[in-house]
Amino acid sequence: MHPDLKNVIELQLVDLKIAGLTKQIDSLPAQIQSLHAGLDEFIHAQEERKKRLAANQHDRKELDGDIKEIQEKIAKHKDQLYQVKTNDQFRAMTKEIEGEEAKVRGIEDQILEKMLEAEDLQKRVQEAAARLESEKARVAAEVARLESEQRADDDERRSLQVRRDEIQESLSETTRSLYQRIRAARRGIAVAQVSDGLCTACNVLLRPQVYNEVRTNEVLLTCENCGRIIHYVEPAPSEAEESDGSGAEATA
Ligand SMILES: [Zn+2]
After folding, report:
1. Which end of the chain is more exposed for a tag (fewer CB within 10 A), N or C?
2. List of the chain residues with pLDDT < 70
3. Rounded to the nearest whole angstrom, what is the distance from the C-alpha of residue 234 to the centroid of ligand 1?
């Protein structure tokens, strides 16, 4: 095989791996941030529930105070019943006391409602508090996993970059600039396999003459249609779908 061709095939693989790793590395901060945001939302919802519970308790205290006040009034009015002089005054006073007692019952209903609401809130606060701990642990573990993945990706990318530089050094000046030019023009893919007479990157048939030449893998050729550097890959024996990479392995 032509030495530049062999090297350029490897260079393409290395560049694709670097691009894949870069994409992965760049996506990590957003993933970590969204995990933190989810947890913050959970904590915020819990704070809201606690605030509602506190407001409920405050309301109940006020209602209790209201009842006390009215009951004092009732007691005073009951004392005054003994001092009234006429039936009319008696009836008026009795009516007033009845009105006050009805008010007390109304407030007692409100207190009952508040107590039911408090019970429900209390239960939800407790449930969320228990869940919050496991949620925090889950997020911390997930963030740690992503961060260690990032470190591993960084390391791998760094060693691939070293390998890329080595390969580029070994290429002839013309091949190196040819590769870079096609790569820039063809969205990162500068090298294509030829299989069954086709350039597998653009799916166009090669002229028989070019095909015969490319089958030797001893010349550096480019596809006349897409311009990519082409190399020949022996078709896989029936099974195993096409395009599994460099086609470097053949023996079993
Ligand atoms: Zn092509």
Report:
1. C
2. 239-252
3. 17
Q: Which residues have beta carbons under 5 A from ligand 1 (an ion)?
A: 199, 201-202, 223, 225-226
Q: Which residue has the tokens 């590395």?
A: 25
Ligand 1 center to 200 CA (angstroms): 7
Continuous H helices in 171-218: 173-185, 208-214
For 115-142, how does the pLDDT look when each residue is reduced to its tens digit (9 = 90+)?
Answer: 999 999 999 999 999 999 999 999 999 9
C-alpha of residue 9 to centroid of ligand 1, in Å: 15
Q: Output the pTM of the full model.
A: 0.72
For residues 222 and 230, give the distance between their C-alpha atoms in angstroms, rounded to a whole number: 5
Identify each DSSP E strand in the chain by its residue range.
191-195, 198-199, 204-205, 221-222, 229-232
Residue 21 Cα to ligand 1 midpoint, Å, equals 26
